[in-house]
Task: structure prediction
Amino acid sequence: MSTEIARGTVVGNGRYEVLEEINRGGTAIVYRGVDRALSLDVALKVIDTGADAKVRVPLGAVKREIKYATKLSDKKNNSLCRLMNVVNHGDLLILVWEFVRGSDVLDFINENGGYLRENLARNLFSQLVHAIQTIHAQGFCHRDIKPENAIISDGRLKLIDFGLAKSLESAKTRGIGTPDYMSPELISQDGELKTSKYDAKACDVWSSACMLYIMLTGKYPFQDAQHPNNVKMTLRNIMNGRIAPITCNVSPQVEDLILRMLNPDPGKRLTLREVARHPWLADEGDETTSKAKKKKVSSQWIIMDRLRRTFRSMTTSR
Result:
């Protein structure tokens, strides 16, 4: 059975009607539909669980997505997309999600001239941090934080797609996620993906820092400008700490935050709690931050910049 469903198809004992396809991935197709009982638009994520499915989706992963999304749906956090129902349609398993009308962060960046103003990036990133904190508080990690998995609607950010989510205690697996956002502890020296225990919270911090970098610059922090589609080179740059310099005009505070979140040592990387308390976020929306606090952060950034330059010179000379 195919995950393709014709427009007008009704599923869930007549409750949900399929309207149009809005996204397609390797294991699922997402449609916009309507909840006829509530007269409300919904997103229908369709997964083929049949024996003749073109792509076999591990049922364990689907059950985890449902389990964690259900736990989060009970939390009052507007930065998280809610799972509303799960229904069957033959061999198809359909996850009924809250429909978020808007653009994903990558499209939103492009719609705003290729990068976001610092105040706007700060507001959205603050919402992202709050969403991830809620996820971690429930005992699991997202593992695929990236601009495509966050939707902007009326100035609000909503984190979506819990397909790779996993318990914090059982995050022992081959490195997983999207290469541009993977932290160095998930990658071996030869550029392959590791299979070992790792701090999943620290990995979520790393990938969210990559997302913040993209918001502010419109570029990927570890891509080689000459070989933007070379995954091996991107992973090698991550391993060697080769962060593309931020050439646009941003404050020392946010550059300090990004560099400390992208510390290659997960034990020294900022925790999410420390990220939330960082002056750049703690003073969200306040343009009259004290000079003393700005001076302190600026001094920290200068020290981090010197360390970064030293590290680069060491890796270049190898």
About this structure: The chain has two domains: 10-98, 103-301. DSSP finds nine helices and 13 strands in the chain. Confidence is low (pLDDT under 50) at residues 285-298, 313-318. Residues 205 and 272 are 6 Å apart (CA to CA).
